[in-house]
Specification:
The structure holds two protein chains of two kinds. By secondary structure, chain A is an all-alpha fold. Helices cover 73% and strands 0% of the residues of chain A. The chains are: A mainly alpha, B mainly alpha.
């Protein structure tokens, strides 16, 4: 954050004190920092789940069913209706959620970026056809489309990720396209063309790197969206199938014992919220940092 | 204006054809299908299943099935449900009021709250309220709706016993508006949470952008009162992008309604969709996909027209 816009802003609203601006900057970075730390911790926990988890997530221990958290040191966060260790299931569930989130994000970004670049660069009827396709896809409420496909395709980690990715790329395509429309007028594209670069080279070697900032922001926020979506479809029974633990299907399970053992429902929900929040904070911070227009407005 | 609306409606035709082809293709090309339900029944032989397949028209080539279905759509006969044989249009239409009631109440609440929070945040930028509101909105956007709903049920219905856990009416109370209101509170709050968060964020940035315009400085220099500046000068300009947002966000509203209705057992279209999905009821699913697509297209069109009505500078092309 440079000083010039900050000064301009403080001139515009004269009674804004220095302390306020420091506070604002701190809080903004603070949130992104918190988000980054949460994401990092979750990634590490998921990566080393087999080493950290005290139990096998699908091992049953029927002598310890419905154990409340912090009652038994062997089962720190308690057990579920089959006596499975909640902590271990949360850790392994995190692997699933993050895997789905990242693979879906990659699918979204890849599809969206390619369609956006091709559409924006080539223009003409290609642009018309592709943007009509985007409009069409946007007519479906995403959960409808997601559930229809998820209900018919046998659920595996890969299929769930792909389904989520392929139903949420439209926004990225629009963002990238509008960036490209602006960028392709610029001199460096002319220069590249004059040097004899072909369409493919210009699109993916010259233009693509220049759209990285908005793509990065969208990608971070898309991970959050995909984690949410995975939990929705797992919750409705079309996602990750038992006995494999995912935060969404742990919640579905917990719903049956909701009035007597609420913590079984609280814990996976807290994990989903933390994960999504982490990526949202991070994405929001990145947007503030990377988008010069927003930097002006604060 | 009229020719603009007519042109937009013409543009909607290829869009709807695209939606129907994608939806139809996805459902019918996928393995499984509605007959898989019958194969679980030991008293039904494979000959029976073949007979059912012919009776439902599922033995025909896909393009013929599609044309038959599309022809029916256009002439107002949306087909019959596989199980029970009821007309699809009737089945969908009887669910519409419940969904519209839920979406309408959640949306009005969210717009009022979101606008108020957003405007206050923009006016008192960088105040404690602003920080809490912007951070809170981001946190609210991170809640999985169904989990938030479950927690609300747990707190207000199971523990405190203030409100019912779900459904639309108590047994024997059908049609009682007070009972309906009691059942409406929780689902409305749950659905409104995410929309409020979105709206407060957009309202804040939209107002901030407007408040730095020159005409605002002029208004202030003229010595106009604060609320006059805010509501006569800033509001109409700042609210324009928000109306566009209303159109764009419609599909999300449907998604949210689906999840909310599922948790609260609210007998609306979302519930119908989830139930139909479990039964692989293609006619209902396709009918609903088309219904929401039309809703979304019309919603966007209305938003654009409303913006043109508010702002004389906007020319509808």
């Amino acid at each position: 954050m440079t000083d010039a816009p900050a000064i301009a802003a403080s001139l515009a609203t004269a009674h804004e004190s220095q302390a306020r601006r420091v506070l604002k900057r701190f809080v903004h970075h603070h949130l992104a920092l918190v988000g980054g730390c949460v994401v990092l911790a979750l990634c590490l926990a998921a990566l080393f789940a087999p080493a950290i988890a005290p139990h096998d997530p699908i091992r049953l221990d029927t002598s310890f069913r419905f154990l409340a958290p912090f009652q038994n040191p062997a089962y720190l966060l308690g057990t579920d209706e089959l006596g499975r260790d909640t902590l271990s299931r949360l850790l392994y569930g995190g692997r699933i959620s993050l895997t789905v989130g990242l693979v879906a994000m990659a699918t979204t970004v890849l599809t969206g970026a390619v369609i956006g670049i091709v559409s924006g660069y080539l223009g003409g009827w290609v642009d018309t056809v592709l943007m009509r396709f985007v409009d069409t896809m946007l007519c479906f409420p995403q959960v409808f489309l997601l559930l229809v496909v998820a209900a018919f395709v046998p659920p595996t980690l890969l299929s769930i990720s792909l389904i989520i990715g392929l139903t949420s790329w439209m926004e990225v395509a629009r963002i990238v396209r509008s960036e490209i429309l602006h960028l392709k007028q610029q001199d460096f594209v002319q220069a590249a063309r004059a040097l004899g670069a072909g369409g493919g080279r210009i699109m993916f070697r010259e233009l693509l790197p220049n759209t990285m900032a908005p793509i990065l922001v969208a990608a971070t926020l898309k991970v959050a969206g995909a984690v949410l979506m995975e939990s929705y479809i797992s919750y409705l029974g079309y996602g990750v199938q038992p006995p494999l633990a995912s935060w969404g299907n742990m919640l579905t399970n917990a719903q049956g014992y909701f009035d007597t053992v609420p913590w079984l429902a609280i814990l996976p929900g807290v994990m989903i919220t933390c994960t999504v929040m982490g990526f949202n904070f991070l994405g929001d911070g990145l947007r503030d940092a990377l988008d010069p227009r927003l930097r002006m407005e604060g | 204006m009229l020719s603009y609306i007519a042109r937009r409606l013409l543009h909607a035709i290829p869009l709807l054809v695209g939606v129907s082809v994608i939806g139809f293709g996805l459902m019918h090309l996928a393995p499984g299908g509605p007959l898989a339900v019958y194969t679980l029944n030991p008293t039904i032989t494979s000959q029976d299943i073949d007979r059912i397949r012919v009776a439902l028209g599922l033995d025909q080539p896909l393009h013929l099935q599609y044309l038959g279905w599309a022809g029916g759509m256009l002439t107002g006969s949306w087909g019959h449900t596989f199980f029970g044989g009821r007309p699809v249009l009737t089945v969908i239409l009887e669910r519409v009021p419940a969904t519209l009631l839920l979406m309408g109440s959640a949306l009005s609440l969210a717009i009022v709250l979101g606008l108020a929070i957003g405007i206050l945040g923009a006016v008192r930028r960088y105040s404690l309220f602003d920080y809490l509101a912007t951070t809170g909105a981001l946190v609210a956007l991170s809640f999985p709706t169904f989990w938030f709903g479950l927690m609300a049920i747990f707190l207000f219905a199971v523990e405190l016993r203030w409100l019912p856990t779900g459904g639309m009416f108590e047994l024997g109370e059908e049609g009682n508006p007070l009972d309906l209101l009691r059942h409406l509170v929780l689902p409305t709050l749950v659905l409104a949470l995410v929309i409020t968060a979105t709206w407060s964020r957009y309202a804040r940035s939209s107002f901030l952008e407007v408040m730095h315009q020159d005409y605002m400085r002029t208004a202030r220099a003229k010595g106009l009162r604060r609320h006059e500046i805010l509501f006569r000068h800033a509001f109409p300009n700042a609210v324009k992008p928000l109306i566009a947002l209303l159109g764009v966000e419609l599909p999300f509203l449907f998604s949210g309604a689906l999840v909310t209705e599922t948790i609260f057992g609210w007998p609306g279209m979302g519930r119908l969709f989830v139930d139909a999905l479990a039964m692989k009821e293609y006619p209902i699913l396709m009918g609903m996909v088309m219904f929401t697509a039309v809703f979304v297209i019309v919603g966007n069109l209305l938003a654009d027209v409303a913006i043109a009505l508010i702002d004389p500078r906007v020319r509808l092309q």
